[in-house]
Every structure is written in structure tokens, then in C-alpha cells.
Design goal:
The complex is a heterodimer of chains A (about 325) and B (about 240).
Chain A lengths: L7 H26 L3 H21 L3 H22 L4 H20 L7 H9 L7 H30 L1 H6 L4 H23 L4 H15 L3 H26 L3 H33 L18 E4 L2 E6 L2 E8 L2 E6 L1
Chain B lengths: L19 E10 L2 E11 L4 E6 L5 H8 L4 E9 L2 E2 L5 H6 E4 L13 H7 L13 H10 L15 H13 L5 E5 L7 H16 L3 E5 L12 E6 L2 E7 L9
Parallel strand pairs in B: 3-8, 3-9, 6-7, 7-8
Antiparallel strand pairs in B: 1-2, 1-4, 4-5, 9-10
Helix pairs in contact in B: 3-4, 3-5, 4-5, 5-6
Classes of the chains: A alpha+beta (about 325), B alpha/beta (about 240).
Amino acid sequence: MLDLLDYDFMRRALVAALLVGAVAPLVGVFVVQRRLALVGDGVGHVALTGVAVGLLTGNSPVWAALVAAVAAAVLLEVIRAVARTGADLALAMLFYGGIAGGVVLVSFTPNGGAANLVAYLFGSVTTTTWSDLAVFAVLALVIVAVLAVAGRLLFAVSEDEEFARAIGLPVQLVNTLLLILVATTVVLSMRVVGLLLISALMVVPVATARQVSRSFAATVATASVIGAALAVAGTGTSYYIDTPPGGTIVVLAVLVFLITAAGRAGARRLSAMRRRHTHPVTHDHRHGGPDCEHPAVHHADHVDYVHDGHRHAPRLTRSGVDYDEH
Amino acid sequence: MTGTVSPPPIASTPVGPPALALRQATLGYNGRPVVFDADLVVHHGEVVALLGANGSGKTTLVRGLVGLAEVLHGAVEVSGTTVSNRSARTDARVGYVPQRLTAVAGIPTTAAEVVASGLLAGGHWWTRHSRTRIRAALGEIGLAHLAATPVEELSGGQQRRVLIARALVADPQILLLDEPTAGVDRAGVASLVAALTDLKAAGRTLLVVTHDVGAFSSVVDRVATMVDGHLSAGPPRPDDPTGSH
């Protein structure tokens, strides 16, 4: 059954998928919080120019892509800070210029480079070499190390930029750092899912994890596990059903998201129905009594009492008074 | 002159620079003034309410005190230090509670996680996560039992108190609260006022921006009013025993 492990190239592909799947959501959690998912895609577009330069000059496309992506990320943050109103158009220029530049430059490579282009646009995890893996491991390690050191700064700035400024955090620097992390993740992930699907690995596992988590820390951990599992499962599935790994991983990720969302909506309805019928809260006073300070609201055939954000309807039961929540 | 103010309310308060001082301060953004020639002195341990209509410049004044609005003219001082020369130490002395509910869509975040951000104040960027201090700050505003609850599940009033705890966790002596009652129901306002009463009893200085001075009448020592960017600081309340010379 596990015959895919007989092949060296599949073993390398699975290790690469595991690495990227686990690391991308760690950055993705901040990307989702700052609503930067599309910026991640844009940085991916610019990375393509880097890939092309690498292919053209005979250098490693990965390092050239890293330089291009980081440069794009820094430029983006400068544009966002300086040109507040024209930022949207400036970003569009950067993104389209990036992908078009890549396409044009690749056509100058000796053998046309069309196959190469497809590999970078849609991923080609099964062509990962051992030296590629070593590079991925270094990039992954750098991302994890930066997050371990600066994660709390990133969190504070993402959670409330105004407050972060007020307590003297270097907001501009932290924003730039986040975009550099995004750029590094883009380059790390491009072999696995391809530059056109680059944000998917960062964002979709986070979107799934946030539905089943009740804290930021839990979301980060869950998203990383989900991402790793999806990347490995998608790569394995693609081997058996003979589909491109990148697309398979993302389709799987979106399916898991939809199933989780549907499951959660169902669970919510169920618990709301249950809560409506049993809500034994002990009160130190009777609603409507002289010491009751909760505002009374007339509601259909009864009176509700407002409690911090929701309404209580008292209801007599055999054991005393219960409250239906509204 | 409207800006002069009562002596320190507590006899034992050490003599020194006031907690907050605006001296002929013009504040604004990108060189455009919003608040004109404001004079206000708040002493340590005092609770001052800043009233005024929407758009009158209340928020700009408060933002000026934490270095988020430009000081175009005059001086803004926190404990005797000019805000434009702000340093990590000034940042830590003032706790800022912005006008905002915490629950923005996005990643679920617990009350304790929100409060943890406040530990970074005062240049302590690499300080260790201190569960004890977070618990203590949440305890001070009566929310210790909700530390692990996602803020999106809290009521408006509870979310405001989480933001107060986030400011308190750095142990500031001065607290600036921007519209703490906006979007909070009556029961929530009552618990907010109770929390502020405790903070006052603990000797902290509070500047509360509000439309609704009635809600805070039991805590507030003095009222200042903002009209179209011009501030008039009222006299101390007549029933304040320390308010007369």
C-alpha cells in the first residue's frame, strides 16, 4: 500500500510537503489577521521574475526568487506607508509587472523555459532534489526562529496597530518583517503548490483551524498540523490518482475547510437549541424585583431582562427559575 | 484662566510634576490642527472626564498624550516629561485604552492573549510572558474567570474591560480611556464604573473621554469640555473637599 515510499523522489516530495505544510500556516495566521492573503499572491507574482532571472543567469532560481520576493515585500510596505490613496494601483503595477516580467524573461532562456515556467507556476514537488530539500529546511528554520523571537510583537501589531503604536512598538518595522516572512514563505512553498496558489497553503489551513479553536495559540498549532497533514495527504493522493500535487493539495484543503465549516454550523445550531431549553443560572435576586438593575425589555408575551449583551427570559420550573437566553 | 487646577486631591501625594499637562497645546495630524491651545493639568490620583460632541477633538487630545497625534504648538507632558521626547519609560507610565471593541473578525483570541500584548509596553519587547501579571490585571477589573474565553464571545462591556486590563498589565499610574461606554449596555456600564472606582481607590489617575458623564458621576472629580477643538477645563466639583484653596 505504501509503495509510494519505495521511490526516492516521492520520499523527497513528502518531506518537502511536510515541511512546507507545517510552516506556511505559522506565517499564514498573521496573514489572515492582517487580511494580507492577496498580498501573498502578489509577492508570488513578483517571485516569478526572480525565478526567470535565476534561470537566465544560471543561478539558483530559489535564491533569485527570494531576493525578488523580499524586495517586492519591502517595496510594498513602503508604498503602503507613503501612497495611501494610490496604493491599490501601485500594488497592481508591481504584481502584473512581476508576472509579466517573469514570462518575458523566461522566453530568453536557451530552451525556451516553458516547461520550467509551468513547474514554478503550478508547483513540481516531485522534482525536489536533496539539495532543494536542504535549502527548504534552512528557510523553514529561519521562519520558525524569527517567529519564536518576534511572534509576540507580530501578534500585538496585528491585533491592534493603534495600541501597538501607543506603547511604542516599532510598527513599521514589524509590518515590514511580516511581509519579509511572507516573501520567504512564498519562496519556500513555490515548489510544492506553485506561485499561482501560493497563498492557499498559508491561508486555507488557518481558515479551517480558526473554526475549531478558541485561542490564538490553539489556532496556530492546529493550522500547522492541518497544513502538514493536507500537504502530505495531497502529495500522496496525487501519486495514486495521477494528478498534479499542488492543485491536489489545495483542492483537498478547500474540501476540508468546507466540511469543517458545515460541521461547525450544524453543531452551533444544535447547541443553540439545547441552550434555549436548559440555562440554569443562579441569580442573587429575582428579575423584576426591587433590587433588579437589569433593564427590562418587553418581548412578545413575556419580559426579558438584559444581561451584558444578551436577554434572559425567566421561566418557572419545578426546581425554581430557569432562564431562556435570547 | 480656565486651565488652572486644584491642588493634589490627597494630602500625602508627593509634590512633583502633574500626571498630565497640556500647555497651550495645539494638536493635529499632518500639520493640520484639530485641538487649539489646550490647557489642562491633571494631578496624580485625580479622575477627570473629558466631554464633548463627536468630532470636537476629544480623541485627538488623548492620542496626543500617547504620541499618536502631532504636537504642533505648545507642550504636552506626562509626569513632567515632554511627550514628543517620548521614551520607553514615558510609554510605560501611561496606559491607553483606545475606542474600539476587541472582537474584530479574524483569529480567535482569548482575553488573556489580548492582555499579554500590554506586557510589551515600555520597551519590554523580549520580556517573558507572565501569566501571573495577566491574571492580576484581569482580576483588577473583575474578569479573571474569563481569561481563557475568546473575546468575541464577551459582551461589549467585558471587551472594554479586557482592553483596560491590557493597559493595566504594564502597571501604569495614569490611564487614558477613550469612550469606554460606547456600545456597552446598562449592566455593562455599571460594571465598568465599578472597575474605575476600584482603580481610583488604588490611586491611579484617570482621564475618561465620554459623552455620558452621568454614568461616571460617582467617580469623576472634575470635568473638562471640548467644543470645536477648544478645551475649557471646569472647576473642581463643589463637593470635593480638597477642591478649594
